[in-house]
């Protein structure tokens, strides 16, 4: 724990982390930048190397890495109270906004411009998935090493992840675990992990919603966009809480609102069981992030140094990348109008060729859709 524990007031943590929760448009890269500017550059609460170690440690964990970094940095300043206050203030502004938007977009008879804006933003979502996967490739490939065998395994893991995202629905988690354990075995080390099933028998209702949210928050290695294939099968195909078009809207809302992308699960919860479902889904999805930090932060240095953990991530990483890319296929197939495919093509050019902002892309697509 940091020596700043007694010095930084909880009110200050609430104000600063709440400000980031309100202004953190752009997903994890924006969150990391804002947290670094606050904790390292502006306030000097953490040294640069302390902050970088926090990024590395939280990236070893399943679930939303930028949320865990926000909780971890607040923990370094004021221990458990700081983590609870900072994490809550980081999450709640975006959660309130996304639930309000969910009520608008999922209303029984929304205005035509709302439907058009939703269809426009949803059309760009598959392009966002492709861009997210492309951004992960350089780092993941570098971790695999320069040997032909290592690169071949990387390609195999990525292909398995892509196929799993397109075909296996809730069993994607097992594919990610298998890729990581295979790499550990190939490198001659043993790693014991608890068996985490990708799907458990469920009869629907709040229990099923809680299980879907738990998979998003506790089992999604890679965080961010890898939650999309994990959620889609359950939300659209298994429990029929949403149509494909509504699910695309949910993903778009998770991208254009501030705070963590995992807020998308709140829209799924709202579709399943109204406001109660949205709040329950968010609570279950974010609870593991708090628990990982509160009970594991003091062990992060040892976790980072464990070669077995590093090997596991070397295998799971490309599977995650492939899964994110593979999720673009069912998302694109969910588009229903010809003009949506035109917007998708333009979004691909905007993100991959012009390398412009995801948030701007989704907002422009929403505006275009409102006029269609």
Automatic annotation (TrEMBL):
InterPro entries: Chr_Tranpt_l_chain, CHR_Transporter, Chromate_transpt. Keywords: Cell membrane, Membrane, Transmembrane, Transmembrane helix. The keyword Metal-binding does not apply. It comes from the Bacteria. The chain crosses the membrane at residues 83-106, 113-134, 154-179, 218-235, 247-273, 279-300, 312-335, 341-371. GO terms for molecular function: chromate transmembrane transporter activity. Its main location: membrane. It is a multi-pass membrane protein. GO terms for cellular component: plasma membrane. It is found in: Cell membrane. Pfam families: Chromate_transp (PF02417). Belongs to the chromate ion transporter (CHR) (TC 2.A.51) family. PANTHER family: CHROMATE TRANSPORT PROTEIN-RELATED (PTHR43663), CHROMATE TRANSPORTER (PTHR43663:SF1). This is Chromate transporter.
